Each structure stands twice: as structure tokens, then as C-alpha cells.
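Chapter summary example.
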Amino acid sequence: MQDGGYVGQKFLSFDATGSFDVVPPPATDTTTTDATATAGTDSTTSLAPPTSAGSVSANFDGAWLVTNDPSGQAVPLTLAQTDESVTGTLEGKTRVTKITGDIEGTKLAFTYQMVNAKGAQVATGNGFLTLTTGGQALTGALMLNGLVIANINAVR
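The structure predicted for these 156 residues follows.
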């Protein structure tokens, strides 16, 4: 629609209510010693050992239920993991979101493509999921142009 030289279009509509929760980074665990410490005042810090290819301990594979969908209904999220790579599908009531990403520690960083019920592309962006509760839950977010458009909370 054009009005006095102003062109306005509405591309996407998202419910961002409560979508700005801060997700803390995962805890880490390895021991290092501060070289500047003097005798009797040893300083120790805990950090996780780096994961090498083939040593992925995080398990994102399987069927999940997203519990905070704006529809108020649980929404299925299916993830398939091969080594450090994950593909998946989030099936909402009116949209299907395909994700592809890589695992680093207990975090899955991904890109997504969202289509509507007719198969037309609605959005593309990125996001992340972090394993919590001993690998039985996920927390994360979908982002569009660097902004959080939806939080994701899921359980197995």
C-alpha cells in the first residue's frame, strides 16, 4: 500500500511475549593452575575439556515436545543427530520449521527455514538449543535478523 510516498508492508507477525529470557551458558569442568600464584596460594579454575570429533556426548536425537508454543498446545520437535550434526522439524499448527545445525558441547547452533501450510517460505534465520535437566529438556530461541522472535522450551 502506498500513502503519500510511504510504502508499508507487514512481512511477519510473532508473539514475542516473554521472549527475552536470558539462558545461562552451560557449566564447565577442567582444572588449571595460575602460574603467577605464589607458594601456598595456588589458584585453581574449572573448565571443560575440549570435545574432539567423534567424542560428542550431547544427545539431541529423538522426539521432543515444545511446551511453550503460543497456541497453548505442545508442538512436536523431531531431531536426528549424526555425530556433531543435527537436522530436524518443528511442526506448528500453521507453520513447519526445518532446522540444520552443529553441536558444540551441550549447545546446538542452527539455521532454520519456516514455511506456511501452503509451503511458501515465511522466514529464515538462526537459533540455538541447549540441553538441560540431564539431557531431558531443551531451552533456546529462534532469531530473525539478530532478534529473538520465540523462546523454545522442550522436553523428551
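To summarize the output: The chain has a mean pLDDT of 76.
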